[in-house]
Amino acid sequence: MTETVQSSRAIKLEPGWKNALAEEFESDYMENLRGFLQHEKGRGKRIFPAGENIFNALNSTPLDKVKLVILGQDPYHGPGQAHGLCFSVLPGVDIPPSLQNIYKELREDVGFKPPGHGYLQYWAGQGVLLLNAVLTVEAHKAGSHQGKGWERFTDRIVHILNEQRRNLVFLFWGAYAQKKGGFIDSNRHLVLKSPHPSPLSASRGFFGNRHFSRANAYLVETGQQPIDWQLPEAAVITPDSRNSKGVH
């Protein structure tokens, strides 16, 4: 495994998050997770996303810049897809069905014009934390790294946001995200819930939830800059996202 899951001293992480999560990186569960990933690598397993992108969500959206949180579950497990942001794929990759449905709701809600890509880095740069509950996955095996320790790590991230920040927006789509964020203090933050945007559930209440306009209205009401949801037509790949290969 790369240095991205080493101790807090060696990890390459945005300073605010690195300081807030230092104890997590020194914990027994993280040591066990590190050992698991190293063992999988030793067995020749291909792991997504690439090592330098495992913490892309945190590096792209510093702790003190977070305005809005979207929770996903696992990284995409196909080659060239995952780059550390939930629901997002690298340029040149087909737009996944759930993201297509997110685009549909955006179009109806805020007049969004869907681009020809599924690269959401532009949102992350504005304060949208696109966080998966599990940060790695074995190629072609959905959910293969669940229950290995990532959930505890990302639970801590959500707790830190709840406790240290005010007036954030949390978008919880589907039962998994809603359970994971069930402790959020709705007196401090805006919590919006709906079914998941997957094809199996989008028609049960994701479509029409108007989460994007409601989120921006809350941000404006609390003196914050709203999110520009319109993605640029041409996806610009950042240096940290160029490596679309998995961890070998």
Summarize the structure.
By secondary structure, the chain is an alpha/beta fold. The chain is built from nine helices and six strands; from the N terminus they run H-H-H-E-H-E-H-H-E-E-H-E-H-E-H.
Secondary-structure blueprint of this entry?
Blueprint: H1 15-20, H2 22-25, H3 28-42, E1 47-48, H4 56-60, E2 68-72, H5 97-110, H6 121-124, E3 128-132, E4 137-138, H7 150-164, E5 169-173, H8 175-180, E6 190-194, H9 211-221
Parallel strand pairs: 2-3, 2-5, 5-6
Antiparallel strand pairs: 1-4
Q: Estimate what percentage of residues fall within beta strands.
A: 5-15%
What spatial order of strands do you see in the largest sheet? 3-2-5-6
Count, helices: 9
Could you give the count of β-strands?
6
N- to C-terminal distance:
8 Å
Structural class of the secondary elements?
alpha/beta
